[in-house]
Specification:
It contains ten helices and no strands. It is mainly α and 137 residues long. The longest helix is centred in the C-terminal third of the chain and has 13 residues.
């Protein structure tokens, strides 16, 4: 649970109280804890650009849950990488971001587990949907 000070920092970076001219990528650097990073990632749609997500997954304070949440937010890209491969701009390189997370996760970069993630919820899969998918195959 976030303290009032942490909640205020996240709210400011998300834009509730900030000047629209401020660069979000610069503001994300103000986040100080794994929980703050996770709260920022939760409502951040990947289609808004990936630069802030690159910074977060490279941050030593990023924990496993936040890295996995970011990864599964890009599930469409994970399942069809060739369709998204080769984007020269890192702001729109979801495959590169996926591979960054995979590499860091495998190398043990994410040492904390302050947050949890349930990929089934992110992907919108219920037990009923999974059962239906199994029966189709």
């Amino acid at each position: 649970m976030l303290t009032p000070e942490q909640r205020q920092r996240v709210s400011y970076v998300l834009g509730d109280d900030r000047d629209d001219d401020q660069d979000v990528a610069d503001l994300v650097e103000q986040l100080q804890t794994p929980e703050e990073l996770h709260q920022f990632v939760m409502p951040s749609p990947p289609h808004a650009g990936l630069l802030t997500l690159w910074w977060i997954v490279r941050n030593p304070d990023c924990d496993r849950g936040t890295a996995l949440y970011t990864y599964w937010q890009l599930a469409d890209c994970a399942f069809d990488r060739e369709a998204f491969r080769g984007k020269p701009d890192p702001n729109w390189d979801p495959v590169g971001l996926l591979e960054e997370i995979e590499g860091r996760y495998a190398a043990g970069f994410y040492t904390r587990s302050a947050t949890r993630v349930a990929p089934m919820e992110i992907l919108g899969l219920s037990p009923v949907n999974i059962k239906l998918m199994k029966h189709r195959n």
